[in-house]
Each structure stands twice: as C-alpha cells, then as structure tokens.
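Posted in: Protein Modeling Q&A

I'm a second-year student putting together a small comparison for a lab meeting, and my supervisor asked me to include a predicted structure for Acetylornithine aminotransferase. I've never done this before, so apologies if this is the wrong subforum. The sequence is pasted below exactly as I got it from our records. If anyone can share the structure token output, I'd also love a short note on what stands out.
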Amino acid sequence: MKTMNSYMEEAEEVILHTYNRFPVVFERGDGVYLEDTQGKKYLDFAAGIAVFALGYHYPGYDAALKNQIDKIIHTSNLYYNVPMGEAAKKLAACSGMDKVFFTNSGTEAIEGAIKAARKYAYTKDGCTDHEIIAMNHSFHGRSIGALSVTGNPHYQEAFKPLMGGVKFADFNDLESVKAQITGKTCAIIMETVQGEGGIYPADKDFLEGVKAICEEKDILLILDEIQCGMGRTGKMFAWQDYGVKPDIMTCAKALGCGVPVGAFILNEKTAGNSLVPGDHGTTYGGNPFACAAVSKVFDIFENDHIIDHVNEIAPYLEEKLDQLVEKYDFLDTRRGKGMMQGLVVKGHPVGDIVKKSLKNGLIVISAGSDVLRLVPPLVIEREHVDEMIGKLETVLEEV
Ligand SMILES: Cc1ncc(COP(=O)(O)O)c(C=O)c1O
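Accepted answer (user: helix_wrangler)
Welcome! Here is the predicted structure, written out as tokens:
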C-alpha cells in the first residue's frame, strides 16, 4: 500500500506551497467521520472549514448529484438551466431576499457584492470615488478585492496596492464605524459572526446601530454569511437572529455542502439599481451541477429539520465546552453561536492542540492567533459531542 508520506511528497513536488498542510491524506468520508489512506478514522469537527453541514454522504445528496451528472453538468450563462432557477428560488425564500447571483466560491461572492455596492452608488450620483467600510480582524477572501476588505494587515502587506476606498473600523464598536463614515461611503461590510478572526459574534446593539446608520444615509449593509450562514448559528442565516436584514448577503461553503458554489444575494432596492447585463459574469456561476447540489441542500434542510437539530444539540455542545473551560486554566473562555464555537487558549500554542488532536483522531482547527475553532457538521449527535470531548480531553491533559 502506498504510504501517506509518498502521497504527500508527490503532491509537494507539483502543488504550489501556499499551505502548511497537516501530514494526513484523506481518502473518504462517512457521516461525521473521515478516513485517511491508511484506514485510520477521524471524528470531524471542522467539516472542511464549515462546508460539510450535512456530513459525508447524507441520504439523498449523492443521488441528486449523480442524477444531475446523468442529465447535464454545464451549459453556460448564455442559456437558462433548470437547477439554477430552483436553487435561486429556495435561497431567496430562505433569506427573504430577492435576487441571486451564483458564484464559484465565497471570495467571488464578495467580489460581486463589492461591485454591486459600487454600482448602486454610481447609479445614484455618477461618482467613481465611493468608499467601503470594513472591519478589523475580518476575513472575506484572498483575491485583490476581497483582500482589500479583509482587516488583516499581515495578509495584505505584500500585495499592495490593493483596491482603494476602503476604511477599517472596529467590529462591535459603533463609534468607530461612525468615525469612518463620509459622504462617499457606499457600503459597510462585515461577517455577522467573525470566523477566521477568532469567532466573534456581532453584538445586537452594534448590528442594529450599523443598520440604522445605513438606512439613514442610504449606505448598503453587506453581511458576509459565508462561514456563519446555512444554519450554523441556529438560524438559516445568522442575521435572522438579530432582526437586521442586509441589503446584500454573501453565502458559500455549506451552500453546496461540498460542491464549490457561492452566491451574493441582493434585496430589491439594490438589485433594481445596480448590476445590469454586461456588468458582471462568470462562466461557471449557476452551473446546473452546483445548483443541483444547492437545491438538494435546501430540500434536506427543510425536510429533515436540520436547523431544529442544531438548536437541539448546540446547547449540549456549549455546556460540554463550558465544562472544559472551567476545568482547564489555559482555556480562557468559550465564544460562539450554535455550531460555530471557539475556545480561547492562553499560554499554549493552539496549533499544538490542533496537531495533537489530529494524531488522536479528532479534527479541529484554529481561528485567529489563540482560538480553537469547532465548526462540526450540523448533523452531529450528543454521542459525537461526547466523543469529541473525550478525545480533546486526552490532548488537553497532555498539554
Ligand atoms: C467569512 C468568510 N468570507 C469569505 C471567505 C472566502 O471564501 P472562499 O474560501 O470560498 O473563497 C471565507 C473563507 O474562509 C470566510 O470564512
């Protein structure tokens, strides 16, 4: 049998080294478990970074994809296809928003959101010097546009000059947002729950305050739900728990539950006054194969009450994590919502805990500099929470 090392060495010869990957080669998944090429099983509490909301091979999901493969997997945006319309209808219904543009990734959804916001402002006043306010410690992607609104100087530095007209404010600090507003501000962009930055949910007052400013000044509110959306926080979209609706929402990751697809979704006001034919496009966006996945994901969410399940299991997950925080001095606090949880680790490198967990058959990831991030498949049961806690405790005892 070929060793994992030989797979890794062969990959390193030809794959551009932009990730310091963990030394494991995964070959298959089943439910909430992954298996490497040597047959070792891992309990997956990372879900491909909040992608596999339904775990691996959820009943009916594979069949829907296979069925679409047998029909057609691509046509192009020059024509209509059936799954595109169906998927968009379900996404619009779940979000209460109006018009969908499908993309291939979260980053590309952010690009589209930025363009829609700029075009909206341009349509109003014909000016080309509009500004966007983004948040410190945010993450929106690595393309030049998305990186420009990503509040992490370390990611940005080597790639300057970035897109102009971006100002940064502090998340959950309304005064700092107000201080950045000018007559040129066209949009405020933020994650409803900051993910990569360290699992920080927006405060209700903050989000309501930002929304009020946006309404008063006709500034567009862009909420990035790429990581926190699709049921993860106990609502289909995290903003639905705040009663604050965005003008533009971005979505990806669990939207296709493993098939690469994203979307930006506009309300009627924005859709009717921004992008028109010729303004934006993508070859694969709205691809029937990806949209068949999206459509099936929404059906499963509805028919199998996935969000009810999140709300049933998440309190148990929180309770168990809180017990760890009480027990171990170096676990400072727990933050998060639903099945998007972070444990703040003090005085010990979080990466070491991640590595040791992997060795112990548990997949967890980090966020920010000191947060252990848990974003499991939404279909985990109590027994999986217990198993995770058992495996993690073995590591924490060692630490
Ligand atoms: C909140 C948020 N926005 C945008 C992105 C970028 O999405 P993608 O990696 O699909 O391009 C991510 C990815 O981690 C994310 O977490």
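A couple of things worth pointing out for your meeting: The radius of gyration is 21 Å. The chain has two domains: 6-58+305-397, 71-304.
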